Amino acid sequence: MAAPLPPPRKRYGQHFLHDPAIIARIVEAIDPRPGRRLVEIGPGRGALTAPLVEAAGELDVVEIDRELAAMLPTRLGATPQRLRIHCQDVLDFRLEVLGTSPSGYDVVGNLPYNISTPLIFHLLEQVDLIRTMVFMLQKEVADRMAASPGNKQYGRLSVMVQYHCLVDRLFSIGPGAFTPPPRVASTVIRLTPRKPPAGELARNAAGFSAVVARAFSTRRKTLRNALRGFCNTEHILEAGIDPGARAEALSVADFVRLSNAIATARCRVM
Ligand code: SAM
Predict the structure, then answer these.
(1) Which of 9, 158, 250, 260 is an S-S bond match for 254, by CB 3.0 to 4.6 Å?
(2) What is the mean pLDDT of residues 248-253?
(3) Pocket, ligand 1, Cβ cutoff 6 A
(4) What is the pTM of this model?
């Protein structure tokens, strides 16, 4: 007899998918195929894992819950060659450990909601290794990723995700598709990494990330004040931006110009 499943653990954001129609829809969006390097974050009880390993032939999964990770091979009847389980915190996991994948990794999952934002930033650091990402997460986080300048939801996450990826909101899912049902609505999104065109490329990736973080750290302040000590008002003007504007008014391209103006000024000083 199969071992009984442990109850869902709140601290790991466990809300398990049980609706076959929804599971099929997410798998269709992922489009698993033999030969693709697929990585699933948080396989849990295997709702997505089973159809993914079936279609792709092999799969790497990252699961923090030791008990669930130990049950997966028997539950899915998969050998260690087909289902490679990395039992650890995904925030410490790096795709490099899987070796090279010339076409890039497809990273997917019904994400633990409590870590979805830090996880997206963690994956953006490794975006050069990724071909595509399909995630289910809170609708509110998906809205923030896709938000445009001037929108209340627009912030650091929007700028960093949109700089590195094309964002497609695919469909929404109500709480009834999960056990236990979450309190929030969920959205499935696709993030497709892109190389920004030459004219929109940040010359210093770390500097770009730092200026975006700093500008949004005090949303209500003007750029002149938010960036005090970080750059001069002249740098903001050099980028063609009004120092009296707030971060939420700047497009991704504005942030790139600003970070490039700061990088150029620092080179001049050195
Ligand atoms: N994929 C399953 C499904 O759709 O039914 C489970 C999804 S559940 C929302 C999130 C899964 O991520 C759980 O299995 C949970 O244990 C796992 N998880 C939570 N935090 C994690 C972390 N920091 N690193 C790796 N896995 C994590």
Answers:
(1) 250
(2) 97
(3) 12-17, 42-45, 47-48, 62-65, 68, 89-91, 109-110, 112, 115
(4) 0.95
Distance 13 CA to ligand 1 centre (A): 7
Query: Nearest to residue 63, comparing CAs of 132, 125, 110, 18?
Result: 110
Span between the terminal Cα atoms of the chain, in Å? 70
With a pLDDT cut of 90, the percent of the chain lying above it is 87
Distance from Cα 256 to the centre of ligand 1, integer Å: 34
CA of 111 to the centre of ligand 1 (A): 6
User: Strand pairing of 105-110 and 83-86?
Assistant: unpaired
Of all protein residues, whose CA lies closest to atom 22 belonging to ligand 1? 89
CA of 183 to the centre of ligand 1 (A): 17
Whether 81 has a pLDDT exceeding 80, the answer reads yes
For ligand 1, atom 23: residue with the closest CA: 89
Residue 47, pLDDT > 50, answer yes
Q: Kindly state the tokens that stand for 1.
A: 């007899």
Got the DSSP string for 192-227?
EE-PPPGGG--SSHHHHHHHHHHHHHTTTSBHHHHT
Cross-strand pairs, 199: none
φ and ψ of 25, to 5 deg: -65, -40
Average confidence (pLDDT) over 194-208: 91
Q: What angle do CA 206, 211, 217 make, to 5 degrees?
A: 125
Domains of the chain: 10-193 (3.40.50.150), 199-268 (1.10.8.100)
